[in-house]
Design goal:
Chain A is of the alpha/beta class and 365 residues long. The first copy, chain A, has ten helices and twelve strands.
Chain lengths: 365, 365
């Protein structure tokens, strides 16, 4: 992946949506395919909270990406046809500038001196990147999970920068249940003594907090139905100590928590998590109560949800679909019966391949 | 309430379901109404994890109980007609013997020396209590939440001790999602430095662990729909420090966590929580795969679930209903559209009053 990673330099004095600025910021990004002559075939993928720019492999010897089945030659997001861009989010810890990057003024990591981060900042810097690549207008913007809200932030702040939208497992704002989950994740990290107001190091990593945060998150990524199939009651272990790991689901949570703990920077996690809870498309309504998407010039949209998604329940996709129709966009709403809950877009390849492939093909006509 | 609290002495050498025994154990219990001459009007209420014996007030000056709207003169569980018994669960910290009670052999609290507690133990000691009151057979056993599983434990171990069953917001076993929630609650308590392997005191209480456990639990008690109505996005606060309480749902979680922290004993919580995850009615099937309730002599049952219950989803009530019909019990399944999730039986008074009232009236014919 490393040799395909590209760097975009954000202009100095980049102003954040909620105030504050940074100098010398960068976005790490990757591209697939070629921009055509009139620059009309660009698709921007905006990612979920913990994903990076590596959506798919660039060559056979490359490592697989987080949306490998979706992006590539002949795949639903066909890189023979489309010029695909995916950046690591501003504020993340996957190559782009974030709270754990060095502040050029001090040489030390920003930590809590990093400006308050909003999804609008992730969207705005992604637009700057695309413009730097010569893209005057995106054919489409594609966002699963946090990326779906970031896509709306993009459209609300750049109403005619994309003609089409694929919005997956997301909504116009986080419902209180999702905010509660994320609030407890943040609390688990902040509580860890090793977090130390952001002054942790590799040797004093807030492991327990990160693990616990991941476990809480895991409650919301799949569904009760999928877990019923995955964890037979008969597989109980004899725990090593009283109240040690005994139930199959406990081993699963522990395994995923251990995998995650050093994969993401704790303070970046806090910033991105809060940005999700801050985002509220409804706040763009002027006057309050009118359709907040009023100014958005979108030709069409595909809005996908899964019946089993606890984090972004289908009522949110219905709400967005309704608002899109109201502004005259040709919106199509699909609620899948995927049992994988919020993660369905990563796992239920058969359903999502067809939906995205068909929609993109039609959008190109 | 105190002057209505009665004490039953469990016979010495009481043997626990998983092994181990205690001497000098007691159950704290309350009764309402009068047992009739042929002892045929007794109803036993088995409680949820954190409830006590005080289901309802005994006089106007008494404090309200946890199921006040349901139990009393002229109410759905009409104490003019029924002799109602409710005990604090064995292992709990509400008057009955549990891990925080003194071990008569040492004079010190049992802590982890308390035998492994199962719902079977709660059920078996409740039956001993009822027998001591002269009840040869219960008219009915009523169990919401954990109490619903305890009621099944009672029937499986005393197949003809109850003629009727009201089973609410529960199931034949905990689904993995519920076990995961409870596992994280236990982990939060065990992680708290003050927990100290059970050697905490009032002055060194594992407050943080208990608060966090309660917050995790709160995720599962209501529903996303109810929370959408309860927490308007516009009510955000300015937090006192970065990542402090800001979103309405965060204030709600904090408030309930603070209320709970000293209301329940941490080690009792661990024991009861694990007992819920251990319970598995399916394990009673002989041979494996047959109907585990085969031996149960139940005339009828009312099985109630709520569409929005995350902790005991409706598939569990459907499963139980199916098994009850198969053994020839007249089972009635009601799935309510209550938006209050798992807590519906405590909050949706109108739906639950009618259901329980109608069922009990018919059962008396």
């Amino acid at each position: 992946m490393a040799r395909y990673l590209k760097i975009y330099s954000i202009p100095d004095s980049y102003q954040f949506h909620r105030g504050g600025q940074i100098d010398g910021g960068i976005l790490a990004y990757e591209t697939w395919g070629e921009l055509n002559q009139d620059g009309s075939n660009a698709l921007l993928i905006l990612t979920g909270l913990s994903a990076d720019s590596h959506a798919a492999r660039h060559s056979e010897s490359d490592t697989a990406g987080w949306w490998e089945y979706m992006v590539g030659s002949g795949k639903a997001i066909d890189t023979d046809q489309w010029y695909v861009i995916c950046a690591s989010s501003l504020g993340s810890c996957k190559g782009s500038t974030g709270p754990c990057s060095p502040n050029p003024k001090t040489g030390q990591a920003y930590r809590f001196d990093f400006p308050d981060l909003c999804l609008e900042d992730i969207a705005n810097t992604a637009v700057l990147l695309c413009q730097s690549l010569g893209i005057k207008q995106l054919h489409g913007v594609i966002g699963p999970s946090m990326g779906g809200m970031t896509a709306l932030a993009l459209l609300l702040n750049h109403p005619d920068y994309a003609r089409h939208l694929i919005h997956i497992a997301s909504g116009m704002a986080s419902p209180p249940f999702s905010t509660a989950i994320r609030s407890l994740q943040r609390e688990a990290i902040l509580k860890d003594e090793n977090f130390n107001m952001g002054f942790y190091s590799h040797n004093s990593w807030p492991e327990e907090g990160m693990k616990f945060a991941r476990k809480i998150g895991m409650l919301s990524y799949r569904s009760a139905i999928e877990w019923n199939e995955r964890f037979p009651r008969s597989l109980k272990k004899v725990p090593e100590h009283p109240f040690g790991i005994e139930f199959p689901v406990e081993g699963y949570l522990e395994h995923h928590a251990n995998q995650f703990v050093h994969q993401f920077d704790p303070i970046s996690y806090l910033y991105l998590s809060r940005a999700m809870d801050w985002f509220d498309a409804h706040a763009y309504a002027k006057p309050r109560g009118t359709n907040p998407l009023k100014s958005v010039k979108l030709v069409s949209a595909l809005v996908i949800g899964a019946e089993t998604d606890l984090l972004f329940p289908v009522m949110l996709q219905r709400e967005l679909h309704h608002h899109l129709l109201e502004i005259g966009a040709q919106s199509e709403l699909v609620i899948t019966d995927s049992i994988q809950g919020h993660d369905a877009f990563l796992v239920d390849q058969i359903s999502f391949d067809v939906l995205v492939r068909t929609y993109l093909t039609q959008s190109a006509v």
